[in-house]
Design a protein that fits this description.
It is a single chain. The model has no long low-confidence stretch (mean pLDDT 96). It is built from 15 helices and 19 strands. The chain is an alpha/beta fold. Strands 3, 5, 6, 7, 8, 17, 18 and 19 form an eight-stranded mixed beta sheet that branches. A six-stranded parallel beta sheet has the order 13-12-11-14-15-16, with helices on both faces. It is globular. The protein is 29% helix and 24% strand. Helix 9 links the parallel strand 14 and strand 15.
Length: 421
């Protein structure tokens, strides 16, 4: 059957094309992709082309389908998997395969598997690793956002703390501790705030930094500081660009104790170094932001590492358990992946949006691959709605949900374009 897909042929070379998919093998599954959110990791892939560790070297002749934050419906099941999967079943997927030590991943490495398409083929390793997951949620976009949320959840679980009695590591952020999310008013940072407010290792304080008043204002509107108070957690947003002495003023927010867990959400040397200086005794800093420069480095205080047991790690991606947790929490309304989304578009918007991702303000760019629609900011719905009934309906729906994209808005979009699933 035919598919439309955004394929990468090389560095900064993305093309929306229609082509024929091969017939699936007995150990493969054909799926219909409904939603795909655009990740900064895809921008980094396209910026590097063949130099990216996950990209095949023959992409100029065998291009790969990009996009790895996708969800949809199973269409056809190969003989090997007919006892586990059925046509019509909704799915979410975990792209961090690590199959037999290889870096191959949907959205990076496969000619016929990725999220920026109408239909694609899941290779056998996805099912063998349990990375094709049943999804029962009301909306597809929350399943798409389950992948970035799983990365955030993996970060929280990977942090650790020690003690002087034995060599056991207490996994996860510190119970009743201070959490600092640096550069945290972007889409992933807000996901980290949403998750941190309900994490089982309940902190007493979450401080979120940024250098943009506009981003801080949006953060406060979608996750108000009062929401932290409802959970018994002090949530505070601060603009470090307006501080005379950011390290002292941030330290003062902890009464001089320091931060037990620091998450660095922007790949900036000075921010990483500031985070290291703000660690408490036995503090753990997670360098979460992935840099494009493979020689990226920063200075850390090894005196503190030795005498005050500070430690640093980095996490990328999540695992199946993290994705299952993300989808379960979203279904229960305990986290709000929608806080990430600021723009919505169709498959025809993906190539340009990906190539220009750092220059487009706001948070996550969510796309619906079964439709054509320009990438549109939710904030622009009201003005567009004055002349376009579709955007008037979408605007009303989002306003009824605190300005956030939601399952009702997704259904309005599908109904308007006649998308069936």
């Amino acid at each position: 059957m035919k598919t439309r897909a955004v394929r990468m042929y090389g560095k900064e070379d993305l093309r929306l094309e229609e082509f024929e998919l091969p017939k699936i093998k007995d150990d493969e599954i054909l799926v219909k992709v409904m939603s795909d959110s655009i990740c900064m990791s895809t921008y980094k892939l396209v910026e590097q082309g063949k130099k990216h560790k996950r990209a095949p070297q023959n992409i100029d002749t065998n291009p790969v389908i990009v996009g790895h934050e996708f969800a949809g419906v199973i269409v056809e099941v190969g003989e090997k998997w007919k006892d586990q999967f059925k046509p019509g079943q909704k799915f979410a997927q975990q792209p961090a395969l690590n199959y037999k030590g290889r870096l191959d991943s949907p959205g990076y490495s496969y000619e016929f598997c990725g999220g920026a398409c109408t239909y694609c083929i899941m290779p056998h390793e996805v099912m063998e690793l349990g990375c094709l997951l049943n999804y029962d949620g009301d909306s597809f976009f929350e399943a798409s956002l389950g992948e970035p949320m799983s990365c955030i959840i993996g970060g929280y679980h990977a942090n650790y703390h020690t003690n002087k009695k034995n060599y056991n590591h207490a996994m996860g952020t510190k119970v009743d501790g201070n959490i600092l999310i640096m550069g945290g008013c972007g889409p992933m940072g807000l996901g980290a705030v949403s998750y941190g407010l309900q994490f089982e290792n309940k902190p007493k304080k979450i401080v979120v930094t940024d250098i943009s008043d506009d981003r801080i204002a949006r953060a406060k509107s979608v996750i108000p500081e009062e929401k932290g108070a409802e959970k018994g957690i002090e949530l505070k947003y601060v603009n470090t660009a307006k501080m005379e002495d950011p390290i002292k003023e941030l330290m003062d927010l902890t009464d001089g104790h320091g931060f037990d867990d620091v998450f660095v959400y922007v790949p900036i040397k000075e921010v990483a170094e500031m985070g290291d200086k703000l660690l408490a005794f036995d503090g753990c800093m997670n360098f979460f932001a992935g840099p494009t420069n493979n020689q990226f480095s920063a200075e850390i205080n090894l005196y503190n590492c030795h005498y005050t047991s500070t430690h640093i790690l980095g996490t990328t991606g999540g695992n199946n358990d993290d994705l299952i947790e993300a989808n379960d929490l979203a279904a229960k309304g305990l986290i709000e992946p929608a806080v990430m989304v600021t723009h919505v578009g169709g498959i025809d918007s993906i190539a340009d949006a990906t190539l220009n991702l750092p220059n487009i303000p706001g948070g996550k760019k969510l796309t619906y691959t079964q439709i054509d629609m320009p990438l549109t900011a939710i904030d622009d719905f009201e003005e567009l709605g004055k002349t376009d009934p579709l955007f008037a309906k979408l605007d009303a729906s989002c306003k009824a949900h605190r300005g956030l994209w939601n399952a009702e808005a997704e259904k309005i979009l599908f109904d308007h374009f006649g998308v069936e699933y």
